Amino acid sequence: MSKKSVLILCGGGPAPGINTVISTVAKAFLKDNYRVLGLHEGFKGIFDENPQIKEFDFFHADRIFSRGGSTLIMSRFKPKNEKLNTSLFIDNNVKLLVSIGGDDTASTANRITGFLKKEGISIANIHVPKTIDNDLPLPDRNPTFGFHSAKDEGVRIGNTTYEDARTSQNWFVMSTMGRSAGHLAFGIAASCHYPMMIIPEMFDRTSITFDKVVRMVISSMIKRKIENINYGVALISEGVFHNMPDSELNKCDIKFTYDDHGHPELGNVSKAHIFNMLVQKKLKELGIDIKSRPVELGYELRCCRPIGFDLTLCTVLGLGVKKLFDEGKSGCMVTANSRGEITPLFLSEIQDENGKIAPRLVDINSELAELCFQNLFYVGEDDYENAKKYLDNPSDYDFNKILTEK
Questions:
Q1: Residue spans of beta strands (DSSP E) within 194-243
Q2: Which tens digit of pLDDT belongs to each residue from 323-350?
Q3: What CATH number labels 151-302+376-402?
Q4: Which CATH number is 5-146+306-350 given?
Q5: Cα dihedral sign for 135, 141, 146, 151?
């Protein structure tokens, strides 16, 4: 019988700290005399007759722990009816599958180890939850790894953009990642003192339309004009785009490509460009001369070097994988609270009756959110008289009224 081994794979998109997790898991198991194998291309490698495998030694693990990106090639591959390469697990005497990714990656790992068990191959699986969107419902609202590093990089770029706006007396319309939740946009906009941020959670009392988003951006521009401030940045979460009905997407004059399910492939277009184009179109209709330019914050954030917070968190999570494995735990996610205590989180604890996991959203009614929204610039009832210099109907651009429109 060959030496016992651990198999590590990464699913979905990159997040800062993946290499820290891989490195920590590798070091912990190498110390315990295991072979540590990294599988390239995520789950695709499990269904490949000739999988690409990277065997780790201490020196490789030690080189990568503080690097951005992933030493293992990632993939969004989701198995359908492909034949599982069971020999990969048997020939290498794999005792643990470590998956790093979102909830889809976790559930796929569960299904694979469940199938292997039916084939008489008993393997534990432990998942390390990862997303820069910070939208997994971890206990005590603990952050997902990679979020703080991505936010930090976003703030670095965001501050430079704001400085450009101030220097050139222009506006920028910025968009950033966050398919379901606005945590990243909220964190960047609040940190950079942007006069306007728009996240999907704000639309809890009204539907999301392009017209409302455009009017909110222009509301900020007019409020600043009233106060003789001729620059700014409006940050819009891409989740605003993803939460719009198809009828709205058909209005924006963009020729989308579509996936196999008939959904527009929004990742192929710049959301900032679309929003900026619509803002400029509306400003021309209003006869208002304000220049704005688009800035898309996207893939730049995913592979940056992890900051100290994520280096610590990912190290603790990697060590937590070994702890849970030694305790005989399987089919769970590893989580660490603010005191660094490791606890297993099972998918069944956070799934609804249909097996879906509701994303963790920005708490729009929290004191933190309310205080940050007070720092925004937008037209309110007290500004109507001054706003009439630019707008025939200032109430149409009242930020709070837009968010309660029926």
A1: 196-198, 232-237
A2: 999 999 999 999 998 888 999 998 788 8
A3: 3.40.50.460
A4: 3.40.50.450
A5: positive
